[in-house]
Fold this protein.
Amino acid sequence: MSLTAIVIDSLVGLCLILSLVASREKTKTALVIAWNALKRLAPSVLAVIAIIGLVVGFIPPKWIASSIGGESGLVGVLVAALLGSVLFIPAIIAFPLARSLLDLGAGVMAMAAFITTLTMIGFVFLPVEIKELGKRFAFLRNGLSFVAAVIIAVIMGLVLG
Amino acid sequence: MMLRTDDKARERKEKSGSARVASLRKRIRWDLVIMVASASALFAMSMIFQEKGEKAMDISWEFFKEMAFILPAVLVLMGLFGVWVDRRLVVKYLGEGSGIGGLLLAILLGTLPTGPLYVAFPLAGMLLKKGARVANVMLFLSAWACIKIPQELMELRFLGWRFTSLRLGLTVTILIPMALLAEAIHRHQGPKAALFQTGQDSEQAS
């Protein structure tokens, strides 16, 4: 059990106890809402879990490194941004990975795009996002985040590269 | 006991008639199809490529555990939020008239909690339903995704202060116009679409 989970669980547990003390009726309604949301989300979440296993388990890291290394330029930025959007890698692992890719010769521009899309965009989570926020909102957020990531990357490449 | 917002959402949903109900059923079935397809793909690939398959299953299992520990708690939090937080409060601080203060509050709210992005979607949906403006919900999600203290410490450690500070500064600068643009497009295409999606759980609750 991760630290994040412990912090979130104990925080919510505390809120739940406070709510129970204040009103049993309202707390019951809240739990029913939560249960219905869980039923609604479960298939998407389970699909996401399987897809993450497939992607991380079967796509070789060498293949990732070769596509954004060397004389990448703007194409490399786009490839890196796309990879960052599609891949699921926890940020804690992504930063050392980016460092090693930089050492292997990947461009600063491409790495900035990779990290920005990795944190802001999750194609694997798109089904969940659509469920909770609607198609229009989800596509807008992901699309604009992608554009923003490319802009950020190009400026960073010009300043640092 | 249910809130006014939920009644409104239900009304809107009923008005749109049976076509929407049909599309809703279609969407739910698609979930199940994708779930079964991806799960069987994972199992099939793992059977064929034993070595890589073991790693893939490990990753999925780790992720399942993480979800199992976090997701129920987050949904309970969402439920509590729905029952206890007054719509007027959300509208006042994050709604249409909230201005720059609302934008900054949305970013601040996004940086406070920890946890992966998928955890934030139900909370963001509830904020939208309670009358927060689209730009603020957009900012909340973006801040949640990319401004986290432990995460930034890792970036600092591995990629250096020049890379980290420049990337973070540019991100915050670009996020605000991006959120406002998204809101403009969202409104242009019909503002209430997202509310249909989030209205359904409360309908079942009542």
User: Anything to note?
Assistant: Residues 24-58 of chain A form the longest helix (35 residues). Chain A has a mean pLDDT of 82. Chain A has eight helices and no strands.
